[in-house]
Specification:
The complex is a heterodimer. In chain A, strand 12 and strand 13 form a beta hairpin. Chain A is built from 17 helices and 30 strands. By secondary structure, chain A is of the alpha+beta class. In chain A, the strands form seven sheets. In chain A, strands 1, 2, 27, 28 and 29 form a five-stranded antiparallel beta sheet that branches. Chain B starts with a strand and ends in a 13-residue tail after the last helix. Helix content of chain B is 4%, strand content 47%. Chain B contains five helices and 58 strands. In chain B, 46% of the residues are buried. Chains A and B meet through strand 30 of A and strand 1, strand 33, strand 34 and helix 3 of B.
């Protein structure tokens, strides 16, 4: 699972003339992991202490001059580097007060970016594709700079980055030329340049954002298209040296994001680790359009793992491509009038944590296949289809749902409308409209305290088209209203209830249903710790009670719907003990309970060892099945009916 | 339905011989299988793995390797000869001495223009494939040490040769050779030479070898370097086969395992860095796996334990079905047992001899399930060794027990038998008509007055028999002009009709009295595996390799109403899912409603008077019926009465005294006669 924590505002942003322009050119790290070097779109570079949200220093160029590339930190010399007016490279230290007095050098060609990363020397990428190490460039600033990209053919750089791997240094940049996109991989020392052609998307739209990362000696390039497709391409670090010409860059579709009506205007995807991608600037799959969200998706399971609404438009400019930065567990997102810092955490994902474990094998598996919607299937059918189709399907959903009664009508009318909608919709449409509807009803209940439509919500949950992540407030709302029926329904039918919510339910009531909720151990234990000792003891007693009940009539036990299995009970006992053992040992009223549990364990161990002993004998019995000795010849009588 | 007295016969010591080589023809979907005794079997994989043809073996012939060139089949063996087979007349077309000593391997290039053989004397010999024969072209650079295995590069310009301790790559254009040295085994086996039993040469110039030190090695053929060694067994890696798309290689070992290697990326992230990774292990054999073929959807393997195993690759199937089930072919799909119904005699056909047995007798009666006390034990009356080197390909016993005939590839022999009480005398009929040189099938008319011999081009020779002489009467010829051999032949009890079936799936019915073709049964897409003519109605019942049953009225020249009803309703899925063909159809003269059939695993009486089972009916219902009361039973009856008490069935027949003869050959008895498998350490031994 991935989590987005509560964020904070690092600084306010000045609105630029055009609303779609980003006020931020770049955010870079310097030697201190708590620092961020923010370059705005005009003249200023500001150094922030992130945890204190406080500027430590600010440098500006004179009026009339313009910073044309984000400032970077030279990790080898502890200096900052920035470029103004395309050709002037400025280098200064933190203690320097005025940028004008700092070292500057004018180079002979326009600079696109200066890139720097820990462990490597800064490199300068020129607009025409040439690359120089900063040091060597500054030693002879007026050295001639060759053209890699030809000016006549109008090939221009769209995005660039650098990657430092053990002893190897790469500069990656993408270019656009006549609607085609290319990736250049420039390796330094020895210098080699490899050019790849990106596959063209059907819509011919240019990619919205790129993100590159190094994993397992391969450079992973992640890029997002306006139709919501996130592709990944992999370039080997020890790549094919000496291959001439342009190579095709194979890609694989990692994610297909729901984009709502039309296409994404400005959005950005950045890989957090091998399984998680953070996406900014796209609508939430079940929220109204017009709002921008920061979402973390798991690409392995195609699941939405965490989301956060970003107030105000995400700032970005087509061509700049960069509207989210990700450093050391923090996401930097400029939106509206602020630059927000949002810490996140991605845990190593496993199927168990994505889907939860301990679903009841008999009943739940078939349900879960319905209840876990894959966005791909939901929005595009099984086959990936072009963006036009997406728009169509969204529109058809919208026409089905008449929003009016849900926003204002009384509870009874809402229930009738929901009933009508559910009975009429076909599965695909239903899945989407149900999600939206549930969110709306929940939102309305939260605003109008008098309004609560348990019947309608229960009906929606029963369609099995809902899941927790589609409408996270639903279960909490039910808890708030002490609507245990709805809670139980959700617990039964939602495959993806977060452990924290499961525990919240536990605190309020103990039921069968809670025990059967899917969970993953390591995520549940911390939340279980929130329970207080009396709650734990009560819960354990309850578990002990059902355990005893089961072990007494284990032979007569018929698989009853919604009854937890023996394994589920034992697992919960173990988890509770794990989480609270020290507390329980100290609590005098838990003593009897613990010794009882211990005797269970003892008896179980004994039983298993006895079973083990007779296993061999039983196998022998099986072998001794009387085999008729049949001779070479016999005359027998058989009867057929 | 009733009680039957059953002669349960287990004294037929049928022993299949080990599988030595196989070659799959992807175009015709035919698998050619070579056995240790020099016989070749052709299986039609497009028609339920039916054993379509058998070319009998010969003492002096050995098969080390088989290879298809288009539709032509070649073999080579340790006798030093290359043989091309005549698949229409089921005999070698010609054999050619290669003058290189024993031949270990034969393989054709993908263009089908050349054959390469690997010889004991270290030469690789190239033969040009001509229209009607092959012609020696040249020797490749002669090496010290024998050539055990060969593989052409798909381009046809290079050949990799597996030898002792090394692999050599010959370049046919530059005439250069590259040597790849193969390590020896560890420990004690260090002093023993490593035999490279098998090589494959892939189009990307990767060479994969399997050797006697238990290694599967991957080589880069460009540079001649070893890329990877997989130690897969302590014993030998004997056979290798590569899939058509070169994404998978299977190897067979002495331990009886088949191990699959796939050319895949080891991690999900690095899809372009593919390597050969050991993926799956199949253990379906107890002994050496000597022959392997990876076909489109399955791995086919065979070896010392004599069985042919088809192991479907489950990922190639969308759902579990009949087609995705493991299949073992253990018994031939034709008859080796002949029963004289009147005389109570059994004839067993071996490749080298015939055995004639008299069944025993019992006293009195017993309850179902009882074994009756024997009054007289069964008795072996005759052990007739064949003459010459050629193995017996077919034989026949007349129902009166007075005549016996067999045929090899080169001659037909006919004997007159006389039994009085305990004495038996056998006389060879001296002068057979010249035209009767060999036969694919033999059968006697039910009154023993005629012998029918299936000859070339689906024709049948009719020979009249009498005490004094044996005279050629006529040749019955099909109108279709088919060149395929007849594999089934049966005649009617009234002596009027003779039906033949050939590998083209054609069934001809001849009027024997008028000596002319009566009719052709509409051709069905699957090969008939058994057929019989009803003694009273003269209806021809046919069972096909796909398990379909048809009944055709010879007199009316059309399918019977029962047959139409059966086809309309469809056979029960459990019947269609059986994986061995029906090899015998016979009838009960006392109860004309009954058709008796059997395959390897069951014996079945079809009662045509009873309703046909539909898909919802419990198909195997004998146990249920047994438990029901007399009154309840009739409502549960259906036409298919299946008995699985008898297993590993080679033959079922009904004697005139209404007793059944079930000839079983327990697989365990076959296994126990095999040499001991390689010793494998089991836990705690």
């Amino acid at each position: 699972m991935a989590t987005l924590f509560e964020g904070f505002t690092l600084c306010g942003l000045v609105q630029t003339q055009s609303a779609s322009d980003s006020a931020i050119q770049g955010i870079e790290l310097d030697g201190d992991s708590d620092h961020a070097v923010v370059t705005d779109s005009t003249r200023a570079v500001t150094l922030y202490k992130v945890s204190d949200q406080k500027p430590l220093g600010s440098w500006t160029v004179k009026q009339g001059q313009l910073l044309t590339c984000p400032a970077v930190f030279n990790f080898q010399t502890n200096e900052y580097v920035v470029v103004s007016d395309n050709k002037v490279i400025r280098v200064w230290k933190e203690e320097d007060l005025h940028l004008d007095k700092a070292f500057k050098a004018t180079v002979s060609a326009d600079v696109w970016r200066v890139h720097s990363a820990p462990g490597g020397e800064p490199v300068v990428l020129f607009q025409r594709g040439a690359v120089r190490l900063l040091d060597s460039l500054l030693s002879a600033p007026q050295q001639p700079i060759e053209d890699i990209l030809s000016e006549e053919e109008k090939e221009v750089i769209r995005w660039s980055t650098n990657i430092v791997a053990e002893k190897q240094h790469f500069v990656l940049f993408t270019t656009e030329q006549k609607g085609e996109h290319f990736l250049y991989v420039q390796r330094l020392n020895p210098n080699t340049l490899q050019k790849y052609r990106l596959e063209r998307e059907d819509s011919r739209a240019p990619p919205l954002s790129f993100s590159a990362s190094l994993r397992d000696k391969h450079i992973n390039l992640l890029y997002l298209y306006p139709n919501g497709c996130v592709y990944q391409s992999v370039v080997a670090v020890q790549g094919p040296v000496g291959l001439e010409g342009v190579q095709a860059l194979p890609r694989s579709l990692r994610l297909r994001l729901p984009v709502g009506e039309g296409e994404l205007g400005a959005a950005s995807a950045v890989a957090l680790d091998e399984a998680h991608v953070a996406v900014v600037g796209m609508p939430h799959p079940s929220a109204r359009t017009g709002k921008d969200f920061l979402c973390i998706w798991n690409t392995n399971f195609q699941t939405l793992q965490a989301d956060k609404e970003m107030v105000g438009r995400i700032c970005g400019q087509v061509g700049i491509l960069r509207i989210v930065w990700c450093y050391l567990g923090k996401l930097f997102v400029p939106h509206g009038k602020a630059l927000s810092v949002i810490p996140y955490e991605c845990q190593k994902s496993s199927l168990a944590s994505a889907l939860g474990k301990l679903r009841h094998p008999g009943i739940a598996v078939s349900k879960s296949s319905v209840a876990i919607p894959s966005w791909n299937t939901l929005l595009h059918g099984d086959q990936p289809q072009g963006p036009t189709k997406i728009v169509d399907s969204r529109k058809s959903v919208l026409t089905v749902v008449h929003l009016q009664p849900f926003q204002t009508g009384p509870v009874e009318e809402v229930r009738r409308e929901v009933e009508a909608l559910v009975s009429r919709g076909d599965a695909q449409d239903l899945q989407l409209s149900v999600g939206r509807l549930a969110c709306q009803l929940v939102a309305r209940s939260q605003v109008e305290t008098a309004f609560y439509a348990p019947g309608a919500l229960a009906r929606l949950v029963k369609t099995q088209c809902l899941c927790h992540s589609m409408c996270p407030d639903l279960l909490l709302l039910a808890l708030e209203h002490k609507d245990y029926f709805l809670c139980q329904l959700c617990l039964q039918l939602f495959p993806d209830i977060p452990e924290v919510v499961t525990c919240a339910c536990l605190k309020t009531f103990i039921g069968n249903e809670v025990l059967q909720t899917p969970y993953s151990d390591n995520l549940l234990v911390p939340h279980l710790k929130d329970l207080n000792a009396p709650q734990v003891i009560l819960f354990l007693q309850y578990l002990q009670f059902i355990y005893l009940k089961y072990s007494q009539d284990v032979y007569t036990q018929t698989p009853v719907l919604r009854s937890p299995t023996m394994t589920q009970i034992i697992d919960w006992v173990c988890l509770l003990l794990d989480a609270h053992f020290t507390v329980l040992v100290m609590a005098p009223d838990a003593k009897g309970l613990l010794s009882n549990l211990q005797s269970f364990v003892k008896s179980q161990v004994k039983l298993f060892s006895e079973l083990g002993k007779i296993e061999g004998s039983l196998q022998e019995l099986h072998k001794m099945k009387p085999s008729k000795d049949i001779s070479q010849y016999s005359i027998e009588v058989i009867e057929l009916f | 339905m009733g009680e039957f007295k059953v002669h349960r016969v287990r004294f037929f010591d049928y022993m299949p011989t080990a599988i030595r080589a196989m070659a799959f023809n992807a175009h015709t979907e035919r698998l050619a299988l070579g056995r240790m005794d020099g016989s070749v079997e052709i299986f039609n994989f497009a028609d339920h793995y039916f054993q379509e043809k058998v070319i009998p073996g010969k003492d002096s012939r050995s098969i080390e390797a088989l290879c298809w060139v288009g539709g032509r089949l070649f073999s080579a063996g340790l006798n030093g000869e290359i043989t091309e087979y005549d698949l229409e007349n089921l005999r070698p077309k010609y054999s050619l001495e290669a003058y290189g000593g024993p031949i270990w391997t034969i393989t054709s290039n993908s263009q089908g223009a050349h054959l390469a053989i690997g010889c004991e004397d270290g030469t690789v010999k190239l033969f040009e494939v001509l229209e009607e024969s092959i012609q020696f072209e040249r020797n490749l650079d002669r090496q010290k040490g024998r050539i055990i295995s060969l593989s052409w590069h798909p381009s046809g310009t290079q050949i990799a040769a597996g030898m002792m301790d090394m692999i050599r790559v010959f370049d046919a254009v530059s005439m250069l050779t590259t040597v790849l040295l193969v390590d020896r085994g560890f420990g004690g086996s260090k002093s023993r030479e490593t035999v490279v039993w098998s090589v494959v040469f892939l189009s990307d110039c990767t060479i994969i070898s399997g050797d006697s030190a238990g290694k599967v090695q991957v080589w880069d053929g460009h540079t001649g370097t070893l890329v990877k060694t997989h130690l897969v067994t302590k014993w030998d890696v004997l056979a290798l086969s590569v899939s058509k798309d070169e994404s998978s290689v299977v190897v067979g070992t002495s331990e009886g395992t088949v191990i699959q290697f796939q050319f895949i990326a080891p991690t999900l992230q690095q899809q372009q860095d593919k390597e050969w990774v050991r993926t799956r292990t199949f253990k379906n054999h107890t002994h050496d796996v000597r022959a392997l073929a990876e076909i489109e959807t399955a791995i086919v393997s065979g070896g010392m334990d004599t069985q042919l195993v088809v192991r479907p690759l489950l990922e190639k199937f969308d759902e579990r079905s009949h087609a995705s089930a493991l299949r073992k072919i253990q018994f031939p799909h034709r008859n080796l047992v002949f029963c004289a119904k009147k005389a109570g005699l059994l004839l067993f056909q071996f490749p080298g001899q015939l055995e004639l047995w008299r069944l025993g007798e019992s006293d009195g009666h017993g309850k179902p399930g009882d074994s009756l006390p024997l009054k007289r034990k069964p008795e072996k009356l005759l052990h007739l060794k064949r003459k010459g080197e050629d193995h017996i390909c077919c034989s026949a016993l007349s129902s009166c027990g007075g005549w016996l005939a067999y045929s090899t590839m080169s001659s037909v022999r006919l004997y007159r038998l006389q039994t009085d009480n305990n004495d038996i005398s056998i006389t060879k009929v001296p002068k057979l008509p010249k035209i009767l040189r060999s036969a694919h099938q033999l059968c006697f008319s039910s009154d023993s007055s005629k012998l029918f011999a299936a000859s070339s081009q689906s024709s049948v020779l009719v020979i009249a028999l009498s005490q004094s002489e044996c005279k050629y009467v006529h040749t019955l010829k099909p109108k279709s002009g088919s060149r395929q051999p007849i594999h089934l032949m049966t005649n009617s009890v009234d002596g009027k009709w003779l039906a033949t079936a050939n590998s083209d799936c054609e069934i001809h019915v001849y009027n024997v009295q008028k000596l002319k073709l009566h009719c052709i049964v509409p051709v069905y897409g699957s090969c008939p595996s058994a057929m019989g003519i009803h003694p009273t109605t003269n209806n021809l019942t046919m069972v096909h390799a796909d398990q379909q049953i048809f009944e055709y009225s010879i007199v009316e020249k059309q399918y019977t109403d029962w047959s139409r009803k059966l086809q309309k309703q469809g056979l029960h899925n459990l019947w269609l899912d059986r994986d061995t063909p029906v090899t015998h159809v016979t009838f009960n003269p006392k109860n004309p409603e009954q058709i008796l059939l059997h395959d390897m695993h069951m014996f079945c009486i079809i009662d045509q008077s009873l309703p046909l089972p539909d898909q919802k009916t419990q198909f195997y219902n004998q146990m249920t019926l047994r438990s029901l009361s007399e009154q309840e039973r009739p409502s549960h009856l259906h036409a298919f009465k299946i008995c699985k008490t008898f297993q590993d069935l080679l033959s079922v027949s009904l004697l005139d005294d209404q007793s059944l003869v079930m000839v079983e050959r327990p697989l365990l008895a076959i296994t126990s006669q095999l040499p001991a498998p390689v010793r494998q350490k089991k836990f705690a031994t």
